[in-house]
Write a structure and sequence with these properties.
With about 350 residues, the chain is mainly alpha-helical. The protein is built from eight helices and two strands, in the order βαααααααβα. It is elongated and about 105 Å long.
């Protein structure tokens, strides 16, 4: 059953080839834009790698970069095919190339669609990665003398100021860790000794936050220490006062930023996917309409173009059979190699047994 058959007079075939040539260049620009978006997202994720626990989220930019590069190659060949379609004598050389080319192109277009879905579906993974990464980042904030963590303080401070956030979930996360290094504590001070003794783990915990949590928009000078002690500060109520530090946690701020970025990228790549799909559909019509001209004396005859010569299931089976056949051959070869090695391993033992019997 032929699917979506259309008649193509000679003039219509020429216009299709010319229009597809222009569309292929538009798709090439879109593919390069996809690659650029992938590089940009990869760079943005790498900037915050110290506060992320894993790199699974990098699957999105990696897929975008790979798909963008491959699509540029696909659209280049599409442009060449369109130029040869304007000269029917040169088009037949592409005949054996078209079937694998279509199969590969459809697979890449599918990957592009998958990258769009991933850009919307990675929120949970991103939140989990940031939850653990930020927790470790805050815990290692004070380790400015430890190799591998020297710039952790700078990273956290810059992040809190840039995203106007404080802590992991909120500013109270800083109350649960010792974020002041021991080298800056006066262990001869009674206050320091009392605080360390009052903690089971012997840590110096304070109800305060780093300077980077201070909100410069607040009219009141920043209160970053003894935040929960109302008696220390004049005209201050911890429960009702609007604190002059950032209230929002950095995990929420980063998830909002990255998901906004990926959702925008996903919408852009989806539009490019539609252009790429239009290229493949138009190329299929051009190919099938030009195949009917092959071997005919009248090169300007009216022909028919279609998307699928058979049904969808039959077409998928036709493309999958060669792949499955290759996989089966590889499995058989691997099994035969294993049996051969096993037989070679048994031969020395058999020879030795035979020699003992002869003795």
């Amino acid at each position: 059953m032929v699917l979506l058959k259309i008649k193509f007079p000679f003039e219509k075939r020429v216009r299709l080839a010319q229009g597809l040539w222009l569309l292929s260049w538009l798709a090439t620009i879109g593919a390069s834009f996809t690659f650029t978006l992938g590089c940009f997202l990869k760079t943005e994720l790498a900037r915050r790698s110290e506060v992320m626990d894993n790199t699974e989220i990098h699957a999105v930019p990696n897929t975008l970069m790979m798909v963008g590069l491959v699509c540029m190659g696909i659209n280049f060949f599409t442009g060449r095919i369109c130029l040869d379609a304007l000269e029917p004598g040169r088009f037949p050389r592409w005949k054996s190339f078209m079937k694998p080319f279509f199969g590969f192109s459809i697979f890449i277009a599918f990957l592009m669609l998958v990258s769009v879905v991933m850009s919307y579906a990675m929120k949970g993974n991103l939140e989990r990665s940031l939850k653990v990464g930020l927790k470790n980042g805050i815990r290692f904030y004070k380790d400015t003398d430890t190799p591998g963590r020297c710039f952790q303080k700078q990273t956290i401070d810059r992040m809190q100021m840039e995203f106007r956030c404080c802590g992991n979930t909120d500013f109270k996360d800083w109350f649960e860790v010792q974020w002041i290094s021991n080298r800056y504590l006066d262990f001869g001070s009674k206050e320091v000794k009392d605080r360390i003794k009052s903690n089971v783990d012997g840590r110096y915990l304070v109800d305060g936050v780093p300077f980077s949590c201070c909100n410069p928009s607040s009219p009141r000078p920043c209160i970053q220490y003894q935040l929960t002690n109302n008696s220390v500060h004049y005209n201050y109520d911890y429960q009702t006062e609007e604190l002059n530090i950032y209230i929002r946690g950095c995990r929420e701020a980063l998830v909002y930023y990255y998901m906004g970025l990926m959702n925008s990228i996903g919408a852009g790549v989806l539009s490019i996917f539609l252009v790429q799909t239009s290229v493949l559909v138009s190329l299929r019509y051009l190919q099938t309409s030009m195949d009917a001209v092959d071997g005919q004396e009248n090169q300007e005859m009216e022909t028919e173009g279609y998307l699928l010569e058979k049904g969808v299931k039959e077409t998928i089976k036709e493309y999958m059979d060669p792949v499955l056949k290759v996989l089966m051959i590889n499995q058989v070869d691997a099994a035969a190699t294993g049996e051969k090695k096993a037989e070679e391993g048994e031969k020395p033992g058999t020879s030795a047994g035979g020699a003992e019997k002869q003795k």
